[in-house]
């Protein structure tokens, strides 16, 4: 019986060591995928060679360390049995490794560490899920390769590219998530949702492996009572632009206005076609970074529709400030939240918050991020640029109109899109705020008020 108990202890040691060293094994897998990513690089040859050398060096170092760890795990795991054999003077070859008792105790011991190493209740992602996200989303050239495979996979599905699509945008906290979801539910649309994570550029290939049924909804981390599940649509298309532009528009401080060329635009239309489930569906997406490439995209396509939302400057700034504080705390407690937002190009608030740089001159925002004035300047920077965008396929919607009269707003959108909506699920809602503006800069309030009134003159009349 002692022998079997020692077998169980060996099993516990084996699994416990694997769990303890798991992050290094994950790192080895990450470096291996990084090498594959470097091989798939379409960069100029000199840059590609440097990337390959760096990736190969990291992989070899990680692999050697892994072999050392594996050797250590084997040695420590077999130590209890070896000591038993030595104390009892039993030749190692005579030990019983095949009996039911030995296998049973070894198996039970191996399972126990995993039983007590469950995902934390407040964690949305398991370690395996986080690893999968890192392997895919960190490797842009691998994602582009998967995109090309997915395109070949679906090109015979009779889903054609269509220049007529809808993007809902605005500064974060303007109501873009809610409006996008309401439009999506009301009409015949296709969009990315959480089930497409992490293979965002290969939705059809991923669907063959992972096609979840509707899951229980829960409140998102914003604390704004908006519920989401795996089938909830979300702002995920920005990853496409991050990959195809190789993050060239993201600096340490700013998100920079940029142009997209014809090739990127054509791939964007291909991407939309990959996401469509039906040939007659319109592609819809929420993308608060649209302003960075709006003029460029409009020059390439006069047909697509855009909805920009805006709200009262002080209320908007107050909401941004609260979310900034909330996400800063969340990211300090869990660095995966920060990593996740960086992957998706969400730099609206938190430790990775960046300001839109929409002109040659960088915005001069002098206030502290934890002050209402800072976010008023962020509002002014964004909407003073946006208010000058004039074309026939752009709709401006005021947040307060959407709150009080959502059905009427959607009816106006329905008419503009020349489509038909189902309004059964539409309900008005309220969002009361009592905001202290005593510390707000008076000149800043005046400037934002001027832009706000200009936006109101441009807004959709319901």
Automatic annotation (TrEMBL):
Looking at the record's lineage, which domain of life comes first? Bacteria
Annotated transmembrane regions: 6-21, 60-85, 97-116
This one is known as: Sulfotransferase family protein
Record's keyword terms, sorted: Membrane, Transmembrane, Transmembrane helix
Q: Which InterPro entries match?
A: P-loop_NTPase
Q: Does the keyword Methyltransferase apply?
A: no
